[in-house]
Amino acid sequence: PESETISLTGGYIEITKGTRAPYEDGYGNSHTSVGANLSAPGGEIRIVSVASAGEVEIGSEFQVSKGCNIKISDNAIVNVSGNRGGSVFIRGGQFKMADSKVTSYTRGDQDGGVIDIRADHSDVQNSEIVGDTEGIGKGSDIVLKSADTLRISNTFAYAGSLGQEDGGDAGKIKIEADRITLTDGAFVSTNTCQCSNFFSAC
Fold it and tell me: In the chain, helix, strand, coil percent, each to 5?
């Protein structure tokens, strides 16, 4: 069912290798995941790593007072795509993402949510963070915020609209850190494209 919530709260959290499992991407195509697959279509996924109990503060900013480590790797997929692209909230001290995907595709008429990743230090490599819309609803926003360092390497971060003339607006991207490094072909973009193929026509 759509619009459900998955919450993972603990100390060290690792989302990595798993068994083969079918999943559907934001464009309705079927694939087989070879990594862990965490999915809440049109809903919300919260991944919160805290150093000790009682340190999660739920509010408009969804903060933790002292975070621990989170690792998403080895073709893992965190997916909230649906009629309305859902929301992903990740909070921790050290956040590392490698060879994996976080996706929130909007396929219908409802506005997308947000992919919101906040940590003290973040390192994102060879991955995809996508908040596209191909419906008439607005695409999901992307927020990448680190208190200290944020490194993005060979990663595709895109909040775009791939609809036709009546397609929804693209989401927004906000990147904030004391030190930001983009290397090895890192691609960060938000774009409204009234075409069938973003890469060939826009």
Answer: 0, 55, 45
Name the burial class of residue 32, with classes exposed (0-12), middle (13-18) and buried (19+) by CB atoms within 10 angstroms of its CB.
exposed
The neighbouring-strand residues paired with 167 are none
- Radius of gyration (C-alpha) of the chain in whole angstroms: 16
Task: Tell me the C-alpha to C-alpha distance, in Å, between residue 64 and each of 39, 68, 92, 134.
Answer: 23, 10, 7, 34
Model confidence pLDDT, tens digit, residues 48-104:
988 766 555 555 456 666 778 999 999 999 999 999 999 999 999 999 999 999 999
- Beta strand 114-125 pairing with 87-98: parallel
At 75, list the tokens.
Answer: 């073709």
How far apart CA 202 and CA 192 sit, in angstroms, is 9
**What is the model's pTM?**
0.84
Residue 85 Cα distances to 26, 128, 148, 165, 202, angstroms: 9, 16, 29, 20, 23
Which element (helix H / strand E) includes 200?
helix 198-201
